[in-house]
């Protein structure tokens, strides 16, 4: 009697590149029916229809493209802006942000199609393997995981040889020495000559920003309007956050803004030299912080950076899905209710500078109190008593431990 054994379904995080393309026939040989899924999160210059068709050509039983730009901006980039998240003070979470969204979608599709397994194309020495698999474990701990590039330990030459043997089209840009990941929040670039930190990054490592030497010789000014900490309008024109980010990327990139050359501490314990381009992030996060300076009460403003740093670490370290992340974001959200207003940004020669700001409803700046002119409403006489009370503790300490002891010493000498 012949047994009817059903082939297991597998959902693959597909990019259209060599790694995930050769993964499809390899996974088929292992016995899976492969459903390829690619998320459009604003990758610059990518033909999504071509990528979708390529997956079917190389053996996927189904190929799905999801336009996730709106969700990516509203649910993943927005928290980064509100929390001023910069890993190690520099990295605005370009690649780290898209991974939890990709896995969320893949898990949903796996459930819809009764798939048992999710696969990704990460290597064994990067952060993405951790981000992908941590999110899978959090969302569905029973889901199996395949990582053919990491587990099979293919060399580049072996991948190409396998591709030719299985009629997998080899990308024409394979000679590029760089490994690039991109979404609407920015572009990450590594490998090749960039692996030597003493080598200056060549211009061909950049795609979103102009070299300073080729930027305009006149500054450009733009107004960013915020509502509850989120950018909602550019120069008075309201638009979805995803569209606003794309437009600011274009404008700021022309002025060479957003280049980051960073030696980064990876999750797996190694240091990596990363080249990032994040023009919109540089402009919007600078504007956001400037508006917070105008609208946040001082104790909140001083404590918030502690939370911001922890959130940046959690995001980078694949803990976007975690109780601590949710709890800290609840605090951040509470602080943003007053962050409403407009910031004028000056863009010039690689610099994004906040030069003016206003908040009609939540500004804590009182010009009558701040002015040094005769019209000041500040009660300077009250400062005398304030200073006495403010320093009372230190004054008593000094009197007990220094002034009194010095007097005793002087008497003893007499």
UniProtKB/TrEMBL annotation:
Catalyzed reaction equations: L-citrulline + L-aspartate + ATP = 2-(N(omega)-L-arginino)succinate + AMP + diphosphate + H(+)
GO terms (BP aspect): argininosuccinate metabolic process; L-arginine biosynthetic process; urea cycle
ATP-binding recorded as keyword: yes
PROSITE patterns recorded: ARGININOSUCCIN_SYN_1
Pfam families the record matches: Arginosuc_syn_C, Arginosuc_synth
Enzyme class, broadest EC rank: ligase
GO cellular component: cytoplasm
InterPro entries noted in UniProt: Arginosuc_syn_C (IPR048268), Arginosuc_syn_N (IPR048267), Arginosuc_synth (IPR001518), Arginosuc_synth_CS (IPR018223), Arginosuc_synth_type_1_subfam (IPR023434), AS_cat/multimer_dom_body (IPR024074), Rossmann-like_a/b/a_fold (IPR014729)
Coiled-coil intervals: none
Keywords from the UniProt entry: Amino-acid biosynthesis, Arginine biosynthesis, ATP-binding, Cytoplasm, Ligase, Nucleotide-binding
Chief localization: cytoplasm
Protein name: Argininosuccinate synthase
Gene encoding the protein: argG
């Amino acid at each position: 009697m012949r047994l009817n054994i059903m082939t297991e379904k597998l959902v693959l995080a597909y990019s259209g590149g060599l790694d995930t393309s050769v993964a499809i026939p390899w996974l088929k040989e292992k016995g899976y029916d492969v459903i390829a899924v690619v998320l459009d999160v604003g990758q610059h210059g990518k033909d999504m229809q071509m990528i979708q068709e390529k997956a079917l050509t190389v053996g996927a039983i189904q190929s799905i493209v999801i336009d996730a730009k709106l969700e990516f901006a509203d649910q993943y980039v927005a928290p980064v802006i509100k929390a001023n998240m910069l890993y190690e003070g520099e990295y605005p979470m370009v690649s780290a942000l898209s991974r939890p969204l990709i896995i969320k979608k893949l898990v949903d599709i796996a459930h819809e199609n009764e798939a048992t397994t999710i696969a990704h194309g990460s290597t064994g020495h990067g952060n993405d393997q951790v981000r992908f698999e941590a999110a899978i474990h959090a969302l569905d701990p029973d889901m199996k995981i395949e990582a053919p590039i990491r587990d099979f330990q293919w060399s580049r030459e072996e991948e190409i040889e396998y591709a030719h043997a299985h009629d997998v089209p080899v990308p024409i840009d394979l000679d590029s020495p760089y490994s690039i990941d991109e979404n609407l929040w920015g572009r990450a670039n590594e490998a090749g000559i960039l692996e030597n930190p003493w080598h200056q990054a060549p211009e061909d490592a950049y795609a979103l920003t102009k070299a300073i030497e080729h930027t305009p010789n006149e500054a450009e000014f733009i107004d960013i309007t915020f509502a509850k900490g989120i950018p909602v309008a550019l120069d008075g024109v309201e638009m979805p956050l995803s569209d606003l980010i794309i437009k600011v990327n274009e404008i700021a990139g022309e002025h060479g803004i957003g280049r980051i050359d960073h030696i980064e501490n990876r999750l797996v314990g190694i240091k990596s030299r990363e080249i990032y381009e994040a023009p919109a992030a540089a402009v919007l996060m600078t504007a956001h912080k400037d508006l917070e300076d105008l609208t946040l009460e001082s104790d909140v403003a001083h404590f918030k950076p502690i939370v911001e740093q922890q959130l940046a670490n959690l995001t980078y370290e694949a803990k976007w899905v975690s109780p601590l992340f949710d709890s800290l974001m609840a605090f951040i959200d509470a602080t943003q209710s007053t962050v409403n207003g407009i910031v004028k940004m000056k863009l010039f020669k690689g610099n994004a500078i906040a030069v003016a700001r206003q908040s009609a409803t939540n500004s804590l700046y009182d010009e009558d109190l701040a002015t040094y002119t005769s019209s000041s409403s500040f009660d300077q006489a009250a400062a005398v008593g304030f200073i006495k009370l403010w320093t009372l503790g230190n004054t008593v300490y000094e009197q007990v431990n220094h002034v009194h002891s010095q007097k005793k010493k002087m008497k003893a000498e007499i």
